Amino acid sequence: MLGTFVLSAGYYDAYFTKAQQVRRLVVEKMQGILQQYDAILLPTVPTTAFKIGEKMDDPIAMYLADIYTVLANLTGVPAISVPLTRHSNGMPYGLQIITSELDEQNLLEIAQTVMQMHHVDTV
């Protein structure tokens, strides 16, 4: 409801337009990086996996668990998360791979190579 108010109450330029300008800068920066490199590798999440039900009462922790995946969505580039191994606490963690727009073939090949290097079973 607040979004509707902001967009209808004369705040369109102050918020939406500015957000789109910032998004454009992020997209341009991402394109520049991906012109120099085949892929970007980064963690999928800031922590290992949660135990089932562990964070149900902590919506902020649940939200922040996905924070690293926002970059690909914001910039419109393909990304995939692949399992790597298990942490010393016994919980799994993964690696996120990002490639250039329309470079899904390369993305899948890198993902397969990473999984084979870490002896992760592929389907």
Produce the secondary structure layout:
Elements: H1 2-8, H2 12-36, E1 40-43, H3 59-64, H4 70-75, E2 79-86, E3 92-98, H5 104-117
Antiparallel strand pairs: 1-3, 2-3
Give a description of the structure.
- The chain has 123 residues and is an alpha+beta fold.
- It is built from five helices and three strands, in the order ααβααββα.
- The chain has helices at residues 2-8, 12-36, 59-64, 70-75, 104-117; strands at 40-43, 79-86, 92-98.
- A three-stranded antiparallel β-sheet has the order 1-3-2.
- It is flat and about 55 Å long.
Rg measurement, Å: 18 Å
Distance between the termini: 44 Å
Question: Which oligomeric state applies?
Answer: single chain
Task: Note the overall shape.
Answer: flat
Low-confidence segments, given as residue ranges, are none
Number of strands: 3
Task: Please supply descriptive tags for the structure shown above.
alpha+beta, 3 strands, about 120 residues, three-stranded antiparallel sheet
Summarize the structure in short.
This protein has 123 residues and is an alpha+beta fold.
